[in-house]
Write a structure and sequence with these properties.
The chain has two domains: about 10-235, YjeF N-terminal domain (Rossmann fold); about 245-255 and about 260-520, Ribokinase (UDP-N-acetylmuramoyl-L-alanine:D-glutamate ligase, 3-Layer(aba) Sandwich). About 35% of the residues lie in helices and about 15% in strands. The chain has 18 helices and 19 strands. It has helices spanning about 10-25, 30-50, 70-85, 100-110, 125-135, 155-170, 205-210, 215, 275-285, 300-310, 325-330, 350-365, 380-385, 400-405, 415-425, 460-475, 480-500, 515-520; strands spanning about 5-10, 60-65, 90-95, 115-120, 140-145, 170-180, 195-200, 205, 220-225, 240, 265-270, 290-300, 315, 340-345, 370, 395, 430, 440, 445. A twelve-stranded mixed sheet has the order 8-1-10-19-18-17-16-15-14-11-12-13, with helices on both faces. Strands 4-3-2-5-6-7-9 form a seven-stranded parallel sheet. A hairpin with a 5-residue loop joins strand 17 (about 430) and strand 18 (about 440).
């Protein structure tokens, strides 16, 4: 398995890279601007599916500056009008028409005859324009193309007035930023555009990936425009994962293979009071391609799980204080040579006996491990540092609360130093779950832009743990790739689920139904 990711750069580094790229003659600025505008339009239509589809007769406001971001926004509007002729579009120009750059004039002139255009002056009442345009029914889409990556704080003048009016306007269904929200950059202004989605065009910028900016940036969509073909001689410490990473899962399998070719995963999980976590991890693993699957759990969980997942083999012991203890290892010991990967933790409980079980697994089992949920102990780092150096890798899957519990360093930026240092100290990889899930090894942090609020419900982490361990069992020598591919697959399935059924009226396990669609197969 391979990792398909592109560098995330600072705005300054992005400007330098773009300058060199265009100077090389590989592409022209106007061609990439048209490519960006059309890609933004398509992505906006896709994202509207989460709120019952693109409004073909809706109202669209375009905030236009004078540079390439303005061109992207204007081309986006023209593309949407081509597809939906009944749209009503209003363009608000933050600068005089004569200041538009050369490549921006053509899309502006085309849009000018198809929409309502206002070049905002000092005396214009922006609130009145918005209310008159909305006619009390609200605005369906606002696309921000005022400033790009070279803007510097503080915001002032007409651009500031536009952003303040739009941010305060109560009825906008989707707020889209082109590349970066206006006012966000290597240095940012707190009055920047409030985006629901930021469509990062060409190069994903570090300010888009920072935790501190999520309230302004919203969710990130990376639109590849070809800047990294061929791959540049860059060694970035933070990258953004691409959907194309999933193509390898939609490829033909070797016709001479058999079930053992695709690994044998062992899951140690579950307790009397939390059977669901074990069952969800098991179901996710079984749906993610591993050849064989064994579950070591307590008897009560197996009784519930066998009818739900008959493909798995179930090894059980009576519960101890409601959970598992070291007897499960004694039971499974004769078969350890058969297993290629072990997942421990979902629904395990937090008794001292289960903690001792986790530590024993970490210190003694010479297999690639995935450690999740209740197995993420407060003294986990001590156990990891006692694991022999020649043992295979360990993947940890904490959410922010569990990251704090295991002693992870707090961070305010994209977390490169905190995460890679943790991985170096503990000889592990980390999948730090959250609105922007990060996958880290000892050198690099990978950001996944997939998924969204539909994942903000119990059990989605158990599904991810099952998927990660299933992929790791199929390719035990490539833990970073297994972690990255599983995270993107999980997030893409969540996107597909939300676009089909919204964010609210869904169950966690429905995500599994969308794993094929996330790979490009029809649902």
């Amino acid at each position: 398995m391979n990792i398909d990711a592109h560098p995330i750069l600072s705005c300054a580094a992005s400007a330098e890279y773009e300058g060199a790229f265009f100077s090389s003659g590989q592409e022209t600025e106007d061609i990439l601007m048209y490519r960006a505008g059309r890609a933004i339009a398509a992505a906006i239509e896709d994202d509207f599916e989460e709120i019952s589809g693109f409004p073909a007769q809706g109202k669209v406001v375009i905030l236009s500056g004078k540079g390439h971001n303005a061109g992207d926004a204007l081309i986006c509007a023209n593309t949407l009008l081509d597809r939906h002729p009944d749209l009503e579009v209003m363009v608000l120009l933050a600068f005089p028409v004569e200041s538009l750059r050369k490549h921006v004039r053509a899309p502006y002139e085309l849009l000018r005859v198809r929409s309502e255009v206002h070049s905002i002056g000092e005396d214009d009442e922006i609130d009145a324009l918005l209310h008159n345009f909305s006619q009390g029914r609200g605005i369906d889409l606002c696309v921000d193309g005022i400033f790009g990556m070279q803007s510097r704080p503080p915001l002032h003048g007409i651009p500031l007035r536009l952003l303040q009016a739009i941010n305060a306007f109560p009825k906008i269904r989707l707020r889209a930023a082109v590349d970066l929200p206006s006012g966000i950059g290597d240095e940012s202004d707190p009055r920047a555009f409030d985006a629901d989605f930021t469509y990062a065009t060409g190069i994903s910028k570090i300010p888009v990936a920072e935790n501190a900016s999520i309230g302004k940036v919203g969710r990130v969509r990376y639109l590849d425009l070809g800047f990294f073909k061929p791959r540049p001689d860059l060694k970035p410490d933070v990258c953004i994962l691409r959907q194309n990473i999933l193509w390898q899962l939609a490829s033909f399998r070797n016709p001479s293979t058999h079930k053992r070719t695709y690994g044998h995963l062992l899951i140690i999980a579950g307790s009397d009071s939390m059977p669901g976590a074990c069952l969800m991890a098991t179901m996710a693993a079984a749906n993610s391609g591993c050849g064989l699957l064994t579950v070591g759990t307590v008897e009560s969980v197996a009784r519930a799980g066998i009818p739900l997942q008959p493909e798995a083999m179930w090894s059980t012991v009576p519960s101890a204080e409601g959970g598992l203890d070291a007897r499960i290892l004694d039971l499974l010991a004769p078969r350890f040579d058969d297993f290629s990967t072990l997942l421990i933790g979902p629904g395990l409980g937090r008794s001292q006996k289960t903690a001792d079980l986790v530590k024993s697994v970490i210190r003694t089992i010479r297999k690639p491990l995935v450690i999740d949920a209740d197995a993420l102990l407060p003294d986990l780092q001590d156990a990891l540092q006692q694991r022999p150096e020649d043992f295979p890798p360990v993947i940890l899957t904490p959410h922010p609360g569990e990251w704090k519990r295991i002693g992870g360093d707090p961070f305010d930026d994209i977390g490169v130093k905190s995460l890679t240092s943790f991985c170096q100290r503990n000889r592990c990889l980390v999948i730090l779950k959250g609105p922007r899930t990060r996958i880290a090894n000892t050198e690099t942090v990978y950001l996944s832009p997939f998924g969204g609020p539909v994942l903000a419900r119990g059990g989605t982490g158990d599904l991810l743990a099952g998927m990660v361990s299933s992929l790791l069992s199929q390719d035990p020598d490539n833990p970073t790739a297994a972690a990255a591919i599983a995270t993107v697959w999980h997030g893409r399935a969540a996107d597909c689920l939300a676009r089909a059924q919204g964010n609210s009226a869904v169950r966690t396990t429905r995500l599994l139904d969308y794993l094929p669609e996330a790979l490009g197969f029809k649902h």
